[in-house]
Specification:
Number of strands of chain B: 18
Order of helices and strands of chain A: HHHHHHHHHHHHHH
Strand content of chain A: under 5%
Largest sheet of chain B: 6 strands, mixed
Chains: A mainly alpha, B alpha+beta, C mainly alpha
Helix content of chain A: over 70%
Radius of gyration of chain B: 25 Å
Distance between the termini of chain B: 54 Å
Distance between the termini of chain A: 11 Å
Strand order of the largest sheet of chain B: 11-16-12-15-13-14
Oligomer: heterotrimer
Structural class of chain A: mainly alpha
Strand content of chain B: 15-25%
Number of helices of chain B: 15
Helix content of chain B: 25-40%
Largest interface: A-C, 62 and 46 residues
Largest sheet of chain A: none
Number of helices of chain A: 14
Chain lengths: 305, 505, 302
């Protein structure tokens, strides 16, 4: 297990390095960062001064290693726009994205696992069809469009939920539904297939033969086994959600990291964009690393192979 | 299953009961305003946004104040002022003024502020607001002199608009960071809470001067929130969770107005739109170097139709490179009325009978830009369109990659052409014409005090710009303000909402 | 990390086994309701895109500033503009018809580019195994850990949006699923007897890949291609919605939603029409994808 863990850790670090290099090279798509930094009223001399001061005239590899080393220490430089450390900005904005991500994934799980289980218990029933319908619709509906529809419904026609801000948990209800619904189809389908497989297996048949009650079979035996792959899928989906929350955050005025990144793209505020991309990637890397370990711990075959 | 249902029923009950009562507006004496912009810093010396000017006017006072109705400069912190000579201004201050933290406001604070912003090392973001100041001198506790580097007729405009007075003791102690987090001014409202980019809360400053030109504030509390999505803003306004918003697009303003749920007032602004063309060949050898082509483009676009159908409100077509009410804005210049046949003829004369392709950029009003694309394509000019965010486009222009762009400029609400024409045509980074004659004339106008001479110089420059079609000036902008029926609010043409004059009905 | 990837709820290689007699297949195709509905919608969309130049009632770029925001015919509109007009007075129906071209083009082109990249990597990893597999798996992991929307937005914003840029960016970003599925499918086929036989008679590697491996993973490829097409279309719509996708005046549906966005509270049809068009297209593609998987792997239908 230790060897396996170390191997995985090494791989995770290598991935993180590569991702950070790609992220950093975004700078060079943007042209001259000194022009953005110098701001509205800069002269050529100002720009040159900034180029020297921040070392933009040095080779890119040198600049990258300096940036990566600083990022490793939690120093992502200073925002061109806000003129404060990017790390401070992130610390302020990340909690909002995290809250949204956690509540959305919880919503998705609470909706999709029961639906998936029910659908698997009665294949081809009305319920199964309903579940399938929900998942098909969920996959095809543009989330920005769904968000706008919810705003019209719940802000104007039936003003039940607040549509903006992040002060209390009530503010997260609508964005949670939009973002969570997006992840529902995949989790539900996996639960359903997993349950079907497990329900058809020998030991469940044995349990049935022993005359165990239905709910014991379902929850004690079947679900527990079917849910293992769902856990790692959920971990991955959570990572995706952090990255995909940009549209939702901007429509619902949630001042999270995704919205920060989107606004920073428009302002050519590259240190912030780089930092957010990197942090979201790292989240994903850490999550998959943990879920790999979890899987290896649950299933010894993986460790050896 | 039953348990699950019961639990979810309970949960939804809990949900409904946990909804906060709608922020009441008039009932709790709080004006809730929303806008789109994330303000980088509330310290006006360190932001460049128009919203920053609104914050400044609420929170700080300058030595003078420009009355938005009469456009006159009247004393504010000053009791009186006079020009000693071309480069010296003298102010006598009101006595007994205090800052929000109780610090007394006297000549020391004024001298401190002027000398501090005049020093380039302080890093004031909009240098042109302050780079005309040489230094300030204290004559006695209530008398100061401000020295200019050279004769600068627009100085009063900046004294009244762009140089708020800061408390010396507090600012020397906390610096720009502290000022950004816990701002202290002497204006009609004091800031009690700042969440950078998200929210600002003001309370009425009870110690504010009683007989000042800004009046006495009446609304107790003002809460500003940043909401990036305009539809969400409108939804907030309609549901009573916001009392005021601005920049409502024309179509929506019509519909909001006819709903009767809110008030809509339209007001013209100093902002004008224009198309800038690379006449100097900065981006390479484009057809735009040929004046005939620039004239053809000018004839090809039906600005009148766009104003009537899309821009609407109090907007009007403009023909010279400035806002009509600005000092020195010559309106008797070469005009290019809509004439597609003439445009085609000019293109043929220039050697492009079948038109040409050109990159065309814009950062706001995508629909106006699209309408222009159509007009251009009718005379055979194929514009490859890119819609970017403002900062990205500005950087691209300065990297010499933009041959043609639809831009706008608000002149910082300064009623003088030096804030627009001189900004763009004196060979700065945004100048795509690089005409030495124009530059010379404008600089003459900028540094002369005699207003007849200034007028003459500006007039010649603007005529030259129009004659050469360096820019195609488009139209003036207007702003739709939408606010609750409970609020009494009067917008002004300088596009700076003054909430200290607002009141409840 | 391979375990995680394999568990993403994607069609696994075992879903599809062996060829089926044509007749049986046909019966299954026509008996599959989802496939029929999805296929039907998709055919209509295709026809709409192809016939737009002949059947569209108006030029989709022709603006009539005096006839702006006319409502569709079922509210208070006129038959001249069945689906109304947009904010510049352009005919909405014509724009929707031409918009189908753009969405389909983006879907196909992006799915094709990413398909070529992903299949090459996946097949190479699955067939050769060892080091090649390690490198490809690493690349997949790197790709998966980059937030797609954010990276696409940043790149388009920095180099400027156009149809070509959007297609290229999406094509370069969406290959991961192909690689994952093709890799595991190839791994299974590689162990089959007929591959061993082909090796034994001395067939060259490219020949084995083309004649033995590719035909047998085609089903999976098509299923993934439909998923990625749908994904690309939705992403383009999202990018255009944020103003970072294809540029006006192209009638992209995502752009139409974005341009109609300002009217959502008063003229909801302006975003409803292109929104529904997008929804139907993506729905149809997904139904067809699901259908193909079911039809080619009947034993998994339960």
């Amino acid at each position: 297990m230790l060897v396996y863990t170390l191997k995985r850790l090494f791989l995770a670090l290598l991935v993180a390095m590569t991702v950070s290099a790609i992220t950093f090279s975004l700078t060079y798509l943007a042209g001259d960062p000194a022009i953005s930094m110098a701001g509205e009223t800069a002269s050529d001399a100002d720009i040159e001064y900034i180029e020297k001061l921040y070392g933009f005239d040095r080779p890119i590899v040198v600049q990258y290693f300096e940036w990566a080393l600083n990022a490793f220490r939690g120093d992502f430089g200073e925002s061109y726009y806000f003129r404060i450390p990017v790390a401070d900005l992130l610390l302020e904005r990340l909690p909002v994205s995290m809250t949204l991500g956690v509540s959305a994934i919880s919503f998705a799980i609470l909706l999709s696992i029961p639906l998936g289980v029910l659908a698997a218990m009665r294949p081809n029933s009305l319920l199964d069809r309903l579940a399938l319908g929900i998942s098909v619709v969920g996959q095809a509906m543009p989330s920005f469009w769904f968000a706008l529809v919810l705003i019209v419904m719940f802000a104007v026609w039936y003003p039940i939920f607040p549509t903006t801000g992040s002060e209390t948990w009530v503010h997260f209800v609508l964005p949670t539904i939009v973002l969570g619904y997006y992840a529902t189809p995949a989790i539900m389908r996996l639960t359903r297939t997993g349950m079907l497989e497990v329900l058809g297996s020998d030991y469940i048949r044995t349990a049935r033969a022993k005359g165990l009650p239905q709910h014991v079979i379902l929850f004690k035996h079947a679900l527990r086994n079917a849910v293992i792959p769902v856990v790692s899928l959920a971990a991955v989906q959570f990572g995706f959600m952090l990255g995909g929350s940009i549209v939702i955050e901007s429509i619902f005025a949630l001042h999270g990291a995704g919205y920060l990144a989107w606004e920073s793209i428009g302002r050519n505020d590259l240190p912030v964009v780089q930092a957010v991309v990197l942090v979201f990637s790292l989240f994903y890397i850490v999550l998959t690393f943990l879920s790999d370990l979890l899987n290896a711990w649950l299933d010894p075959r993986i460790r050896v192979g | 299953m039953k348990k699950f249902l019961a639990a979810s029923a309970l949960a939804s009950l809990a949900l409904v009961s946990a909804i906060p009562a709608a922020l009441a507006g008039k009932a709790d004496d709080t004006l809730n305003i929303v806008w789109e912009r994330e303000l980088e810093n509330v310290d006006s010396y360190f932001n460049t946004a128009r919203e920053g000017i609104i914050v400044t006017r609420l929170t700080w006072d300058g030595l003078l104040y420009r009355d938005p109705k009469t456009m006159d400069y009247v004393p504010l912190i000053a009791k009186s002022f006079k020009w000693v000579d071309d480069t010296t201004l003298e102010f006598e201050l009101r006595e007994g003024l205090t800052f929000h933290n109780g610090e007394e406001l006297d000549a020391d604070d004024v001298v401190f502020t002027y000398n501090w912003v005049a020093n380039p090392d302080s890093g004031v973001k909009t240098q042109r607001n302050v780079n005309w100041i040489k230094e300030a001198k204290k004559l006695d506790k209530y008398k100061v002199q401000v020295m200019l580097k050279e004769p600068f007729p627009a100085a009063l405009e900046f004294v009244s608009g762009s140089v708020p007075i800061y408390p010396q003791d507090y600012y020397s102690k906390v610096g720009p960071d502290g000022m950004g987090q816990k701002p202290v001014g002497s204006g009609p409202y004091k800031i009690t809470e700042v969440e950078p980019g998200k929210k600002i809360v003001w309370e009425k400053f009870d110690g504010y001067m009683k007989d000042g030109p800004k009046g006495t504030p009446t609304i107790g509390k003002i809460v500003q929130r940043t909401i990036p999505e305009r539809n969400t803003q409108i939804a907030e306004l309609l549901s009573g969770r916001a009392d005021w918003m601005w920049r409502v697009p024309a179509d929506q303003a019509d519909r909001l107005k006819s709903s009767g749920k809110v008030q809509i007032i339209n007001e013209e602004t100093f902002r004008i739109g224009y198309i800038t063309m690379d006449a100097a060949g900065i981006t390479g050898d484009t057809p735009l170097k040929n004046p005939l082509v620039r004239k053809a483009i000018s004839y090809a676009i039906d600005r009148n139709a766009i104003v009537q159908a899309l821009v609407r409100g109090k907007s009007q077509v403009v023909n010279s490179a400035c806002f009509p009410s600005q000092f020195g804005c010559e309106s008797d210049v070469t005009k290019y009325p809509y004439d597609p046949a003439k445009a085609k003829a000019l293109l043929a004369e220039a050697g492009y009978p079948d038109g040409f392709a050109i990159d065309f950029y814009a950062y706001r009003n995508r629909d106006y830009a699209e309408a222009m694309l159509n007009f251009l394509s009718e005379v055979g000019i194929k514009a490859n369109f890119s819609y970017l965010k403002y900062a990205a486009l500005r950087d691209k222009i300065r990297s010499k990659e933009v041959p043609m762009a639809f831009m706008t400029w608000g002149s910082y609400s300064i009623n003088d052409v030096s804030a627009i024409t001189s900004h763009f045509f004196t060979h700065g980074k945004d100048d795509l014409a690089l005409d030495p004659k124009v530059k010379e004339l404008l600089q003459k106008g900028d540094t002369t005090v005699d207003s007849a001479v200034r007028k003459q110089a500006y007039s010649e420059a603007l005529k030259l710009i129009a004659e050469q079609a360096y820019w195609l000036p488009l139209w003036s902008y207007n702003t739709n303000y939408a606010f609750s029926n409970d609020v009494d609010f009067t917008p002004t043409s300088d596009e700076i909402p003054r909430f200290f004059t607002a009141s409840w009905k | 990390m391979t375990t995680t990837i394999a568990n993403r709820g994607l069609p696994a290689a075992e879903d599809i086994v062996g060829p089926t007699p044509g007749q049986q297949l046909r019966r299954r195709i026509f008996g599959h309701r989802g496939l029929m509905i999805g296929g039907g919608i998709l055919v209509i969309m295709f026809l709409m895109a192809l016939t737009a130049p002949f059947l569209a009632p108006h030029d989709p770029y022709f603006q009539e500033l005096l006839a702006r925001v006319k409502p569709p015919v079922w509210t208070t509109g006129e038959w001249k503009h069945v689906l109304g007009t947009d904010q510049l007075g352009r005919d909405y129906l014509s724009r929707i018809m031409y918009g189908a071209q753009i969405s389909l083009l983006i879907g196909f082109a992006a799915a094709f580019i990413s398909g070529v990249i992903g299949t090459t990597l996946g097949v190479a990893a699955g067939y050769f195994g060892g080091r090649v597999d390690m490198v490809v798996t690493f690349l997949i992991t790197v790709r998966l850990s980059m937030p797609v929307v954010l990276v696409a937005l940043a790149v388009v914003a920095l180099i400027g949006g156009s149809l070509t840029v959007v297609i290229s960016v999406l094509g370069l970003l969406l290959w991961d699923r192909y690689a994952v599925v093709m890799r595991s499918a190839t791994m299974q086929i590689r162990q089959m007897d007929y591959v061993a036989a082909a090796k034994a008679v001395g067939c060259s590697t490219p020949r084995i890949l083309l004649t033995e491996i590719m035909p047998n993973i085609m089903n999976n490829l098509i299923v993934v291609a439909t998923l990625e097409m749908a994904h690309a279309i939705l992403l383009e719509a999202a990018l255009s919605f944020l103003g970072m996708g294809v540029q006006p005046p192209l009638p992209s549906w995502g752009l139409m939603v974005s341009e109609g966005k300002d009217y959502i509270l008063f003229e909801a049809w302006m975003i409803t029409i292109p929104g529904v068009a997008l929804f139907l297209l993506v729905l149809a593609i997904n139904l067809v994808g699901d259908g193909i998987r079911d039809v080619t792997a009947p034993e998994n239908r339960n």
